[in-house]
């Protein structure tokens, strides 16, 4: 019985760490994946490197083409998109 009492503080510390550290990080990661998955042509984005540009083409599952200036296009890995500054509206269905 006394040996179980010694493990209670360790279990309590793990539970507190889960709710304060692990769970919020998982939620943040899920939100980022949803944001990246919803990228469309015309969205203005900021990369983790601080570059601001407009998505000109969504190439495949993990890559987009971003136009930084008139005629300057770079390929960017989707996971390095830090934030979407402005979203374009989806095209209206006819």
UniProtKB/TrEMBL annotation:
Q: Which top-rank group of organisms is this from?
A: Bacteria
- Identify the GO cellular component terms for this protein: plasma membrane
Compartment(s) of residence: Cell membrane
Entry-linked InterPro entries: Preprotein_translocase_YajC
Tell me what topology the record assigns in the membrane.
Single-pass membrane protein
Q: Which UniProt keywords apply?
A: Cell membrane, Membrane, Protein transport, Translocation, Transmembrane, Transmembrane helix, Transport
- Subunit notes for this chain? Part of the SecDF-YidC-YajC translocase complex. The SecDF-YidC-YajC translocase forms a supercomplex with SecYEG, called the holo-translocon (HTL).
Q: Which family does it belong to?
A: Belongs to the YajC family.
The name on file for this protein is Sec translocon accessory complex subunit YajC
Gene transcribed to yield this protein:
yajC
């Amino acid at each position: 019985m006394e040996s179980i009492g010694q493990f209670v503080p360790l279990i309590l510390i793990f539970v507190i760490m889960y709710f304060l550290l692990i769970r919020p990080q998982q939620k943040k990661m899920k939100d980022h994946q949803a944001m990246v998955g919803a990228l469309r042509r015309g969205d203005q984005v900021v990369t983790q490197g601080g570059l601001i540009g407009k998505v000109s083409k969504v190439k495949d599952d993990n890559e987009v083409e971003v136009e930084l200036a008139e005629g300057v296009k770079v390929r960017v890995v989707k996971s390095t998109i830090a934030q979407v500054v402005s979203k374009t509206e989806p095209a209206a269905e006819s």
